[in-house]
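Subject: Sanity check before I submit

Could someone independently write out the structure tokens for this chain? I want to compare against mine line by line before I put it in a report. The sequence has 296 residues.
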Amino acid sequence: MNRIRVASLQYFIRPVRHFDDFKAQIEALVDTAKDYKVRMLVFPEYFSTQLLTLGDVKRPIADQIRDLAAQEDRIVSLLATLAKKAGLLIVGGTLPGFDESKEKILNKCYVFSPNGNQQVQAKLHMTRFEKEEWLVGPGSRLRIFETDFGKFAVTICYDVEFPEIARVAGRMGAQILVVPSCTDDRHGYLRVRYCAQARAIENQMYVIHSPLVGSLPMVPAVSLNYGQSAIYTPSDFSFARDGLLAEGPVNQESMIIGDLNIDLIEESRQSGTVLPLRDSQSTHDLLKVVDEVVLT
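---
Independent answer below. Compare away.
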């Protein structure tokens, strides 16, 4: 049986006095995941924004984000070292980082293998505050990460609200979708949650949702956060009764842990009560022959 134990963080952002405070918080969480024999640990979107409290929070937020992007290498090095030391696959939430030109800021999710190697998935769709206030731009490619237990893709927060991304990942064999998120209110959180649950059903895959919690009242756009980590499953007899494998307490610092049976995903896609991933091909064909009619 192909099982993997995963953990999703409700990472609690708080003001820090030194980079070492940030480092200590991350190290403790990675150590805890290792103690629980976790193989994949997921951080939320923009968890590194607590480092903004080390600078002048009265400056324009776009300037602060650019300064945070300048610490990209330092944060990446920390996570790579911890992944290798703990022997974990770490999906490192997201952090602002520069593109290859060193001019454009992207919202980047680094994925670290247990040997410390890394790959990046950039966010593809920007929310209004990212685009208009933070001046963060979109990436352009979806990546499918192949591991010894199966394949997964990362859709960052708003990206999960676009079903075609997860559909492509499912058709390419991804059994897991990882969703790091950062939402300031319940409405935003529920948009991400409901869409993540829909992606689990539509594509017959596990979805690991890791939201940011805690508050930085002095930092615009992350002054408040609302979240509840969860692991969603397809809705069928072989899975959790409510399509919910695990769930954390709302808005509290927490780590939720669940065992994923990858074989069940493949069985579901072949012989489930319904086969939405397979049957979506017929929808694709239907869209080629759509008729528009006028009612009089």
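---
OP: Matches mine. For the report I'm noting this point. Residues 137 and 276 are 33 Å apart (CA to CA).
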